[in-house]
Amino acid sequence: MYNDCITYHLSVFWFVENLRYMHEGSVIFYFISKSKAMPPHSLFMSDRGIFMKRKNRVILSLLAAVSLAMVSAPAGVYASNAAASAVQDAGALSFVTTAKNAVKHMEAAGFVDTDGSKLQAVILSYDRAIPASSVGTDTYSIDDYGTTLRQEDLTQGKGPGQIKKVYVNDKPEMDAKGGTSSGSYVIIEVNTDYQTGRFPRSYAITMYAGVTQKKAIRAEKGIILPSDEAITNYTKETYVGYDPQTGKPRAPEYYNYAKEGSYHIRGIEGYQLHTLENGTAFHAVHCFDEANGRYWDLDLPYALYVPKDYDPHKTYGLLLYIHDAGSMSADPRLTLTESQAASNYASEDFQNLARKNGLDGVIVVCPAIPEFYAMDEAHPHYELRMARDNWTLSCAELAIWQLMDHLTRQYHIDPDRIYGSGQSMGGMTIMAMAAQRDNYFAALLPMSCKWGNNFNKDYPFNGTAYYNMPADGTIVWQKDSHGNPVNYNNWLYMVSDDNILYLNTAQENTEYRVLYQDLAGLTIPREELLLDSTTTARKRNASIRRLTARPNETGIYHTVLTGSVSHMSAWFYGHGTPACYEWLLKQTRKTEMARSKLPLNRPFALADKQKKDADHIYSVDREDPSRIVYYPTGRPGAGTEGYNSPVTALGSKASLPPGWTPSSKE
């Protein structure tokens, strides 16, 4: 009987104009009929609202719900909860419901793109099967990190985070073929074809999402009405960061953070997480800090990738990847998601490339350096920032060396195939490490960074005197790879035979080039790579391959990134260019040892005349552009022993110019 009534009223196609709860759960329905079967504004009322018999209330509730499903009237959002409630009160629990009640679970699916972790899809788990024809891109609206971005926040693409595709599936996962004909999972894929200028504070920010079902859905069993309440996976949090420029907390920032367990990020599953919380962080001892001259013990969090088919009888490479200072954290997942580096290194493509170059795979280690560390009661906020702008290092760098030695003992690592990769602070650190152990790394891939000499770390600068890390012969070597005594402080000399592929923005790393040219008559091959909205990985690959194919008296190559790029986005392009990895895995320690260093292990001396070309410019005064500081022009045949690179201090205007000496400052 009920079905007959519903069929009859559907045939006259009633529209629901409004409904609301009144007095003791009674419901008012205002029906506007396109048929003469009922008067246009039939009301069932009493002095206290509408009181209907149970049977009539069931019929009218179902009627309203089905009408809403057909016309998706604006009032439907407000009506849906009441209609579904009335039906459920009547016992028809499975026929009409709302999105709020029908969606039992929501999961965000992400991956690591060139610019870090990124939402790719939202998976809604419904309590019933839904035909594929019942959903489309206009069924839902979405709020995610991508949709908060402005066009000026992007370096490539448009429409970040917008809904791109909606389909059903019989499994809670994306499907390249577009899903199944029916299923209880609705997959909402969003646009990921864009690149930002920088990574946000956390991967959890990139994984938040809120989805609102805007239209009714005809399920295989019943109707799922829209809801005005979004289905979300996040909480609102306050972030207060540390500003190294001022030494004080930054102003509070407010973000949506995805709840733990509400998302997964593809590409980092193979990493083991060694954290402070789970007690598996690496315990390093007796680590010297050049800031205070003291030795410290600390626990170093890190992520480790070991190929699934690891065999101790086979031979593997080892790759050290270090993050930048913008992602300092004790959480290893941050270093895995702030750029595509770690994800790429653990990918099948990279591992296959290693196999093509004679390895059985590559083990990847990614230390996680927190900004502050609870060293002891007297030092609850010990600063661990590693590579400082006065060319000194924190004790965290020594902890990394100990971790590397631990891994080379634990796994079957080819000492000829150990690689270093890092950006900004991380790139500075691996370059500093390269001088501490001559030809230890087979090749380096530093981005957005530089390093230099400082023979006088004890010279008081900006009110502070630093300390020189002792060469103990174990952590920091006293001899080069051929057994000759060396001074690791002469960084410009020590790395002159290394395999290095630099990727920097314009004027970011010119000192070593002009010194090599002036002192040794050597020109480092470099190529400018213009980056804009039309730049593709194919174009970038061609540029890198062209550069590394050029004749070279050293193993050093330099790519200068220009155009739509900044210090913070340079590594997005670098790790989005597979040709960089092709070059990296072809390099071996043996090629470095077979190459002579430049004859720079002799005292520095000035040339008779200062060169004033663009490469020699160190700085230009913003207020008075005529005031230019140049890198000193070295005399041909002289070395870099005793030469000091320029020194700056975060949060201060204090500086020491290129080539400074203690006597020149007295």
UniProtKB/TrEMBL annotation:
<dbReference type="InterPro" id="IPR029058">
    <property type="entry name" value="AB_hydrolase_fold"/>
</dbReference>
<keyword id="KW-0472">Membrane</keyword>
<keyword id="KW-0732">Signal</keyword>
<feature type="region of interest" description="Disordered">
    <location>
        <begin position="628"/>
        <end position="666"/>
    </location>
</feature>
<feature type="transmembrane region" description="Helical">
    <location>
        <begin position="58"/>
        <end position="79"/>
    </location>
</feature>
<keyword id="KW-1133">Transmembrane helix</keyword>
<protein>
    <recommendedName>
        <fullName>Esterase Ig-like N-terminal domain-containing protein</fullName>
    </recommendedName>
</protein>
<feature type="domain" description="Esterase Ig-like N-terminal">
    <location>
        <begin position="113"/>
        <end position="224"/>
    </location>
</feature>
<dbReference type="Pfam" id="PF18435">
    <property type="entry name" value="EstA_Ig_like"/>
</dbReference>
<dbReference type="InterPro" id="IPR000801">
    <property type="entry name" value="Esterase-like"/>
</dbReference>
<dbReference type="InterPro" id="IPR041172">
    <property type="entry name" value="EstA_Ig-like_N"/>
</dbReference>
<dbReference type="Pfam" id="PF00756">
    <property type="entry name" value="Esterase"/>
</dbReference>
<dbReference type="InterPro" id="IPR050955">
    <property type="entry name" value="Plant_Biomass_Hydrol_Est"/>
</dbReference>
<keyword id="KW-0812">Transmembrane</keyword>
